[in-house]
Design goal:
- The protein is α/β, with parallel strands linked by helices and 328 residues long.
- The chain has a single domain (81-322), classed as Rossmann fold (3-Layer(aba) Sandwich).
- The chain has eleven helices and nine strands.
- The protein has helices spanning 3-9, 29-35, 58-73, 89-105, 129-138, 149-161, 204-219, 234-237, 242-256, 274-284, 311-322; strands at 44-45, 51-52, 118-122, 141-146, 169-173, 191-196, 261-268, 288-296, 299-307.
- Helix 2 crosses helix 3 (58-73) and helix 9 (242-256) packs parallel to helix 10 (274-284).
- The termini are far apart.
- Residues 1-20 are annotated as: Disordered.
- InterPro entries: DNA_methylase_N6_adenine_CS, METTL16/RlmF, rRNA_lsu_MeTfrase_F, SAM-dependent_MTases_sf.
- It is an enzyme of class 2 (transferase).
Length: 328
């Protein structure tokens, strides 16, 4: 196959991403480097002859994220501490667009836009990506929680450095890692959504093994070092019991906050964990459970969302919280 044949086969549109996702088209590196000149040092032709970056280079990925956030979301100042997670923005945006659709389904099909909608991001991380995108795209207010003081400090620095979002995002440290909502949500406080991208692995060794497998598949090499191109530390990538235990704990605790949130949700990366998640949701008596498929390239994931509100309680919630403002 010659280079021209390869280029013809290269997809121009990431059709698996949500229709409202700004990143469905291939990255426009010309526009991105105009917005963020520092990115230019990492841009070079790929195997298709198109401009790209080395996605195995953490510094290149970080420069790309800075450019994407500045060009598409108006965030001029963004950075993260060394070794912290530098997430792929298209996938993060997809979660928010899909969860916005779920909220709309509870509102007669109308998207809810504006600061009267409040979202809790469980495990906001040092990057603060979900609150940034959610606020810019939908005008929602956010509370971001994390057990890591360094992550909270970094996220707060990002928020305070950008006037566009500085009044819309609040960061709260979870001082007791045994809890998720307790100690974060204030007495009587209500949020319309709770989102979570839980730690995927159960240990550092498992995380590194997964990275090695990925690199071997992509680079077709036997000897590769377990370097995480998107970074990430123990709070972000692994925890005791991994994704399955984290989400089960989240579900059990959410029952005690059944009147504090309309839709709880979590990303579920491992399909094998769904059976346990559904069983736990049934055990705690969730009124409604939704599974939302998400596709990002070759990766297939999904959001599982649940609510404890009865139809009557949902109607009261909508009247009291959502019908105060114009809806789009």
């Amino acid at each position: 196959m010659n280079m021209s044949d390869k280029k013809k086969e290269h997809p121009k549109v990431k059709s698996s991403l949500h229709a409202r996702n700004r990143h469905r088209q291939r990255y426009d590196f010309k526009a991105l480097t105009e917005s963020s000149p520092d990115l230019a040092a990492f841009v070079k032709p790929n195997n298709y002859g198109d401009e790209s970056i080395d996605f195995f280079n953490p510094e290149a990925v970080k420069a790309l994220n800075k450019a994407l956030l500045k060009h598409h979301y108006g965030v001029d100042h963004w950075d993260i501490p060394e070794s912290y997670l530098c997430p792929p923005i298209p996938g993060r945006a997809d979660y928010l667009h899909h969860i916005a659709d779920l909220l709309a389904q509870s509102n007669g099909g109308n998207l809810l836009i504006g600061e009267h909608i409040k979202c809790l991001d469980v495990g906001v991380g040092a990057n603060c990506i979900y609150p940034i995108i959610g606020n810019v795209e939908y005008g929602w207010r956010f509370v971001g929680s994390d057990i890591d003081p360094v992550a909270i400090k970094s996220a707060r620095k990002i928020v305070e450095a950008n006037p566009l979002i500085s009044e819309e995002i609040e960061l709260r440290l979870q001082s007791n890692p045994r809890f998720i909502f307790e100690g974060v949500l204030k007495p009587g406080e209500q949020v319309d959504l709770a989102i979570c991208n839980p730690p995927f692995h159960s240990s550092k060794a498992e995380a590194q093994a997964g990275t090695v497998r990925k690199l071997r598949n992509l680079k077709h090499k036997k000897d590769v070092k377990p370097v995480l191109n998107f970074g990430g530390n123990n709070n972000e990538l692994w925890c005791e019991g991994g994704e399955q235990k984290f989400v089960k704990d989240m579900i059990f605790e959410s029952r005690r906050f059944s009147n504090s949130c309309f839709w709880f949700s979590s990303l579920i990366s491992k399909e094998a964990n769904l059976k346990s998640v559904y069983k736990t949701l049934k055990k705690v008596g969730a009124i409604s459970v939704k599974t939302i498929p998400m596709g990002q390239g070759n990766k297939v994931s999904r959001i599982v969302a649940w609510t404890f509100l009865t139809p009557a309680q949902q109607k009261e919630w909508k009247t009291r919280r959502w019908n105060k403002k114009p809806m789009e």
